[in-house]
């Protein structure tokens, strides 16, 4: 029996955003003929019902408390049990701390392949995954010789469906866990410095064309006024001008804000792929032939050192 198994995740008892996005991807594949959608999650039955509302036809909930540590080696037997129960021949996993380990581990155990850093999926009698390659400078379409086909999917690559409380489906429980060979002694959360790049309604990004890292100070001020986040191109991050955690692109974060302001960014393909889902794109660039200018809804052809301060001043006047 063909179908799709989604490996959902929860944080502190609440579904992680990637879970809804994976179900959105699964529903797309199901509509293309890939079969029914089963979601697996560790936790309580209530999470299973939430997954049904988000698009799963069935949910398998593993109640074993050992899975709460999110170690791939502990998850592996549980996922294998869910895979056998569901009969799925496609497995979708988030490109998360868990998924980066679980995807390859599951593929090795089942003698199949995994597409990492996946940004698009389609079903044409078999799964075809699109992933970044050559350091993010190109994208490759890959298919699978063996089943199940496994893909780890980057955040924001697909939209989550709106919850539908009227949806019905079966929720079953299992109690399976592997043995941990690693002991977690403690977890230290990184300090939050504002809105997450992936969740920001407005993203202001800078590139190598800024000339030096000081230009990001202006972008941060603009982003703060717009209640958004600041991003950067890979070139700027490679130069050490901005933290890699704020990189937008195939090898960084995939964003889809309402407004994306690209400042001094030429528009390399790997960067464009990371922000192509933006609703409105504004380019500020001295080069009228830059790729970013060509795809932007609005473009300002001038030195950002003149444009950004003027824009900040006008926004402040609006209160």
Low-confidence stretches: none
What percentage of amino acids are in beta strands?
25-35%
The helix content, as a percent range, equals: 25-40%
- Globally, the shape reads elongated
Judged by helices, strands and strand pairing, the structural class is: alpha/beta
CATH topology of the largest domain: Rossmann fold
Major sheet size, sense and barrel closure: 9 strands, mixed
Discrete helix count: 9
Q: What is the element string, with H for helices and E for strands?
A: EEEHEHEHEHEEEEEEHEHEHEHEH
Task: Give the SSE map.
Elements: E1 3-7, E2 10-11, E3 14-15, H1 17-34, E4 36-42, H2 45-53, E5 58-62, H3 72-86, E6 90-94, H4 97-109, E7 114-123, E8 127-133, E9 138-142, E10 149-153, E11 170-174, E12 202-206, H5 215-225, E13 229-232, H6 234-238, E14 259-263, H7 269-275, E15 280-285, H8 291-295, E16 298-301, H9 304-317
Parallel strand pairs: 1-4, 1-6, 4-5, 5-11, 6-10, 7-10, 12-13, 12-14, 14-15, 15-16
Antiparallel strand pairs: 2-3, 7-8, 8-9
Cofactor: FAD
GO molecular function: electron transfer activity; flavin adenine dinucleotide binding
Domain Electron transfer flavoprotein alpha/beta-subunit N-terminal: 4-189
Q: How would you describe this protein?
A:
Helix content is 30%, strand content 26%. By secondary structure, it is α/β, with parallel strands linked by helices. It has two domains: 3-174, Rossmann fold (3-Layer(aba) Sandwich), CATH 3.40.50; 197-317, Rossmann fold. The strands form three sheets. The chain has a nine-stranded mixed β-sheet, with helices on both faces. Helix 3 (72-86) crosses helix 4 (97-109) and helix 5 runs parallel beside helix 9 (304-317). The radius of gyration is 21 Å and the shape is elongated. It starts with a strand and ends with a helix. The mean pLDDT is 94. One of its GO terms (molecular function) is flavin adenine dinucleotide binding.
């Amino acid at each position: 029996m063909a179908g799709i198994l989604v490996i959902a995740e929860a944080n502190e008892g609440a579904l992680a955003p990637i879970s809804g996005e994976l179900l959105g991807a699964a529903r797309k594949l199901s509509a293309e003929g890939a079969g029914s959608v089963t979601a697996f999650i560790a936790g309580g039955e209530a999470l299973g019902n939430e997954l049904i509302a988000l698009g799963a036809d069935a949910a398998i909930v593993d109640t074993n408390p050992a899975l709460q540590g999110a170690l791939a080696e502990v998850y592996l037997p549980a996922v294998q049990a869910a895979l056998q129960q569901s009969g799925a021949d496609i497995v979708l996993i988030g490109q998360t701390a868990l998924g980066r380990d679980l995807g390859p581990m599951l593929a090795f155990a089942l003698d199949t392949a995994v597409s990492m850093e996946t940004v698009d999926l389609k079903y044409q009698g078999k799964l075809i995954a699109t992933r970044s390659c050559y350091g993010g400078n190109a994208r490759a379409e890959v298919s699978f010789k063996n089943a199940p086909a496994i893909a780890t999917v980057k955040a924001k690559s697909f939209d989550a469906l709106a919850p539908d409380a009227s949806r019905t489906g079966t929720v079953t429980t299992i109690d399976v866990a592997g043995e941990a060979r690693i002991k977690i002694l403690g977890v230290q959360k990184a300090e939050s410095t504002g809105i997450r790049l992936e969740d920001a309604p407005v993203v202001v990004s800078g590139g190598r064309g800024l000339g030096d890292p000081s230009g990001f100070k202006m972008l941060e001020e603009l982003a703060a006024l717009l209640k958004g986040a600041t991003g950067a191109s890979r070139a700027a991050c490679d130069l050490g001008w901005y933290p890699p955690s704020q990189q937008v692109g195939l090898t960084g974060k995939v964003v889809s804000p309402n407004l994306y302001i690209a400042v001094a960014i030429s528009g390399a393909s790997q960067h464009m792929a990371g922000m192509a889902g933006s609703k409105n794109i504004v380019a500020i660039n001295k080069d009228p032939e830059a790729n970013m200018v060509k795809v932007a809804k609005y473009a300002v052809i001038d030195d950002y050192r003149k444009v950004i301060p003027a824009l900040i001043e006008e926004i402040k006047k609006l209160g």
